[in-house]
UniProtKB/TrEMBL annotation, chains A, B:
Keyword terms: DNA-binding, Transcription, Transcription regulation
PROSITE patterns per the UniProt record, alphabetical: HTH_LACI_1 (PS00356), HTH_LACI_2 (PS50932)
Species assigned in the record: Pediococcus cellicola
All copies of domain HTH lacI-type, residue ranges: 2-56
The name this protein goes by in its record: Transcriptional regulator
Entry-linked SMART domains: HTH_LACI
MF terms in GO: DNA-binding transcription factor activity; transcription cis-regulatory region binding
Entry-linked Gene3D superfamilies: 3.40.50.2300, lambda repressor-like DNA-binding domains (1.10.260.40)
Domain of life, source organism: Bacteria
InterPro entries from the UniProt entry: HTH_LacI, LacI/GalR-like_sensor, Lambda_DNA-bd_dom_sf, Peripla_BP_I
CDD domains (UniProt xref): HTH_LacI
DNA sequence: ATTTTGGATGTTACCGATAACATTATTTTG
DNA sequence: CAAAATAATGTTATCGGTAACATCCAAAAT
């Protein structure tokens, strides 16, 4: 591998000049810069990351920590990682996947943490290095997330516009911030339209929502739409309605939230709130690098506006 | 952070002795070793990875490349990564997630590649660094994988023992090695029992297997079991049978292959071939590090014996 | 007793980059 | 036009380790 020195010799300048061309180009004359660029291209120079890390007393490693049990996880996190990795790669940082278990092994320059529950915040607050959290929180940590409230508001609104008369919210039985926000979007829409909210909560498993809908089937007249806080819950509702002989989307609607993977096993596809996960991952990476490189304490949070992914579980137009 | 030097001073020896205690302990007397260990503990010494990397002309980075389109991917890879990362962490290596797109950015010491199709092998063959592939192949590359053939053999055998008379294989329409192996396991069992094999192939989407079963429902008498090459295909078959009024597992059986995630949205849970994915990831990592550290060209391949995960889509005992 | 040998430890140079300082060339200023 | 300020480039020391070589000293061989 070509080194700074090789470039310097070829361009007939000192190492320092080459280093400056890279890090402080404004301090080098254009003539020399051209020479150096030329030489770099000629021998395909790539800086040695380890040497850089050594002088800067950094590691160029970012730890990505998923606190949630990964077995129960959707490919969500994979896409998120792709996004983070993409942002980091561009700056020659590398991403290290850790769990609670091996969190402390080895050093790093910063963290992206996700899957946090309320109990985790105390622990995370003790981290000394720059940090970005994926997933909204109300503890003052910088985060990146989808605008959860806007998502359920939008999709509830869509259901209403398409003529469903009764909107039932099937939420996740967890006291986490994102769940509150999703419920809040639903509640706001119902309030604005002076409708009566109905919220039911279950653990995030399709068979629980399925059982609920089946068990209460006689109470659900046509023109009911189930606004679900996750695609899993939506999938359960969809299956329940079909097994009870309800017609989707003609008489019954179902909406989900996530829009990543489950849709590939649902039929008809669920109309859902789709999140730009790769982009959010990139945002996590960019924000974190920004904090690291500019020694900023807090960079603020970022909400991505969600989009609705049209499936076949909401009718095309009002009857 | 404490350095070698700090330890040396505290133990009243030279840097070199400390370094030797770490890398060539047999060359240091026990007395000194004790002193050094004591000092290391006292100031909580952790070697600086960047400095190590610099002298060894290494990066301590392993690239993990998923060639398959990740959007269509199950959480499979997430678990695999956890395993790889676990193995690498123990040796202070870090894992970098790359795609084809950013594959060439930055240096590394070795690769774990997965999701390879036949066309990819030429390209992969050109890689200069140590390599381990996740997923069986017939091109001579070292790999780690589940014993696919044994998996379908075992589960087909189970279906037979539980009294299903007709075993239909629903495979993936791909000419990849793992698919051939899964079919081979099925074929072998049928041959040994002098039964007539029936193989149908579809792209790996649940609605395709679903449609197939629905469309041909009148041809499937009770006591038929569908041996599927993936959980997705199994899920489709399961839904089809239910929608046609078939009874699972009493009259119809369904088996899958993978056993990671889909089971969380299937009801009843699919009886499937379960793979030890985290362990396989660790094996990938360990083998790769072994190749790197011992400068071995080929370390041979490794097959993990699969296990059957009992769900509710195969009956408990023969009728 | 003296030389030889070999094991244990220390010294030095180096990996590839950068910051801080030193030097040189150029421009500005009194 | 000389002195001072400024800009452009080079030199040196350093980050935290390790390999290669140098030194030292006790045991073995002569």
């Amino acid at each position: 591998m070509a080194t700074l020195n090789d470039v310097a010799k070829l361009a007939n300048v000192s190492k320092m000049t080459v280093s400056r061309v890279i890090n402080h180009p404004e301090k080098v004359t254009d003539d020399l810069k051209q020479l150096v660029y030329q030489a770099m291209r000629e021998i395909d120079y790539h800086p040695n990351v380890a040497a850089k890390a050594l002088v800067n007393n950094s590691t160029r490693i970012i730890k990505f920590c998923v606190l949630e049990d990964i077995d129960t996880t959707e490919p969500y996190y994979m896409n998120l990682m792709i996004g983070i990795a993409r942002a980091l790669d561009a700056q020659q940082y590398s991403l290290q996947l850790v769990t609670r278990r091996n969190f402390d092994i080895g050093n790093c320059d910063g963290y992206v943490v996700t899957g946090m529950r309320k109990d985790d915040f105390e622990w995370v607050g003790k981290l000394k290095k720059p940090l970005v959290i994926f997933g909204e929180n109300r503890f003052g940590f910088d985060y990146v997330d989808t605008n959860n409230k806007a998502g359920t508001f939008m999709i509830s609104n869509l259901a209403l516009k398409r003529g469903y008369k009764r909107l039932i919210f099937i939420g996740m039985d967890s006291r986490e911030s994102f769940e509150y926000s999703r419920e809040a979007g639903y509640l706001q829409l119902l309030q604005e339209n002076q409708m009566l909210p109905e919220i039911h909560r279950f653990d995030n498993h399709s068979h629980l929502s399925q059982k609920f809908v089946v068990d209460n089937w006689d109470k659900f007249e046509p023109d009911t739409c189930f606004i679900c806080a996750s695609d899993r819950l939506a999938l359960g509702a969809e299956r329940a309605i079909e097994s009870c002989g309800g017609l989707i989307p003609k008489d019954y609607g179902v909406t989900g939230f996530d829009g990543v993977f489950l849709n590939q096993v649902a039929f008809p596809q669920i109309t859902t709130v789709k999140q730009a996960i790769v982009e959010m991952g990139m945002a996590c990476g960019d924000r974190l690098l920004d904090k690291i490189m500019n020694h900023v304490d807090s960079a603020g949070s970022l909400m991505f506006e969600p989009q609705i992914s049209m499936g076949g579980t909401i009718r095309d137009a009002a009857k």
